[in-house]
């Protein structure tokens, strides 16, 4: 990334920029998410909690807190977070470790949360944000030596604890993959020597394969992925029902609220599998529309990153871009059985208070970077 020339031009007025297009996309995805969340979860919520809007209410509360956090972060100069990047990363590692202590809580058979009173949050979501800020700080301070393979290895080693702790202690392979993807994208953008990534990729592939072989249930997921009909009792049922939902939607879907698969056939449809209900109720048209909105969001990220006044700001936006892109791609790939099943939510749309809260903070950072862009 080249350094921008910010020397004022005499006779030309310079105004702060604000990306209202990105703000519109965020609001649209959130509102669309509320509609689809209620449609998807109302039956399940009525059965479990005798309140059809139970999931929606919790999501709205988390989103309201996230919107306030986004507004505050957007008004703060993003460069101030350089001072707290290392501290934030260390705190995120400590929070991951706390999951295996009495402070940790288990939900749906997975111990990935920290309970604080009646509230709980997932440290993996904090780690994603912390890694973005930490890598932006480290890379921007090491830009002159990024062409060296030793520097690349050093940065990878520094971010490895977050990936290993999340994968081993919380057994959350999907979040570990996302964080690894964020790191690779940010390093790829900052490094002028792309050949180095061949070696890093080979090491990551070997390490990932060994990690897969360490747990039997991960290998079972490959079997389910290849032959879901044969292993219907071992996880293939959810995959098959998701594919039935997608296939039955056709071009324009059955209509909002008319899904059959959400009536207990697709387990926890409001979480990872919400895209299947979108396909069933709104059809191919609705699915493509959602994908196009995410593509529009990614394009706005690219515009902001390219016009940022410094490398630190550009890398923050690149990190958020990588996070959203990887999560959307993996979620859609999982629900269409393109890759083995793993728990990955659809940003802004799937149910999850911690997820939407930290996503909104990331959006605040991107909007803060956009506010520093000068236009003439």
What does this structure look like?
It is a single chain. The protein is built from twelve helices and five strands. The chain is mostly helical. The protein has a three-stranded antiparallel β-sheet with strand order 2-3-4. Helix 2 (54-75) packs parallel to helix 12 (353-371), helix 3 packs antiparallel against helix 4 and helix 5 packs antiparallel against helix 6 (173-190).
Please give a quick description of this structure:
With 376 residues, the protein is mainly alpha-helical. The chain contains twelve helices and five strands. Helices cover 65% and strands 5% of the residues.
Task: Map the helices and strands.
Blueprint: E1 15-16, H1 20-49, H2 54-75, H3 85-98, E2 104-107, E3 110-116, E4 119-121, H4 123-141, H5 149-169, H6 173-190, H7 196-214, H8 216-226, H9 236-249, H10 274-307, H11 311-335, H12 353-371, E5 374-375
Antiparallel strand pairs: 1-5, 2-3, 3-4
Helix pairs in contact: 1-2, 1-10, 2-12, 3-4, 3-5, 4-5, 4-6, 4-11, 5-6, 6-11, 9-10, 10-11, 11-12
| Separate helix tally | 12
Uncertain runs with pLDDT below 50, 5 residues or more?
1-14
Distance between the termini: 22 Å
In this structure, how is the largest beta sheet organized?
3 strands, antiparallel
Overall shape: globular
| Helix content range | 55-70%
Name some characteristics of this structure:
376 residues, globular
């Amino acid at each position: 990334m080249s350094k921008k020339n910010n020397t004022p031009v005499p006779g030309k007025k310079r105004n702060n920029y604000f990306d209202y297009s990105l703000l519109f996309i965020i609001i649209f995805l959130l509102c669309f998410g509320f509609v689809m969340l209620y449609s998807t979860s109302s039956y399940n919520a009525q059965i479990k909690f005798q309140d059809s809007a139970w999931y929606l209410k919790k999501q709205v509360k988390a989103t309201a807190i996230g919107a306030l956090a986004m507004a505050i972060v957007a008004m703060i100069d993003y460069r101030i977070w350089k001072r707290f990047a290392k501290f934030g990363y260390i705190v995120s590692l400590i929070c991951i470790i706390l999951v295996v202590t009495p402070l940790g809580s288990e939900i749906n058979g997975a111990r990935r949360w920290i309970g604080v009173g009646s509230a709980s949050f997932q440290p993996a979501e904090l780690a994603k944000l912390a890694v973005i800020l930490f890598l932006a700080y480290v890379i921007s301070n090491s830009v002159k030596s990024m062409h060296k393979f030793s520097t690349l290895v050093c940065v990878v080693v520094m971010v490895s604890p977050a990936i290993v702790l999340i994968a081993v202690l919380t057994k959350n392979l999907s979040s570990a993959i996302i964080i690894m993807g964020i790191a690779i994208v940010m390093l790829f953008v900052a490094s002028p020597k792309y050949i180095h990534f061949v070696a890093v990729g080979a090491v990551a592939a070997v390490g990932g394969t060994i990690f897969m072989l360490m747990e039997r249930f991960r290998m079972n997921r490959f079997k389910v992925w290849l032959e879901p009909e044969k292993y219907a009792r071992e996880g293939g049922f959810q995959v098959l029902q998701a594919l039935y939902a997608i296939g039955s939607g056709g071009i324009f879907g059955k209509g909002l609220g008319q899904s059959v698969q959400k009536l207990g056939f697709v387990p926890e449809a409001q979480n990872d599998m919400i895209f299947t209900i979108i396909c069933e109720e709104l059809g191919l048209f609705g699915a493509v529309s959602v994908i196009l909105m995410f593509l529009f969001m990614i394009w706005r990220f690219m515009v902001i990153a390219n016009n940022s006044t410094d490398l630190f700001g550009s890398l923050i936006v690149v990190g958020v871009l990588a996070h959203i892109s990887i999560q959307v791609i993996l979620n859609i790939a999982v629900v269409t059985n393109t890759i083995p099943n793993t728990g990955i939510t659809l940003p802004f749309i799937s149910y999850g208070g911690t997820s939407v809260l930290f996503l909104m903070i990331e959006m605040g950072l991107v909007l803060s970077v956009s506010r520093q862009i000068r236009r003439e």
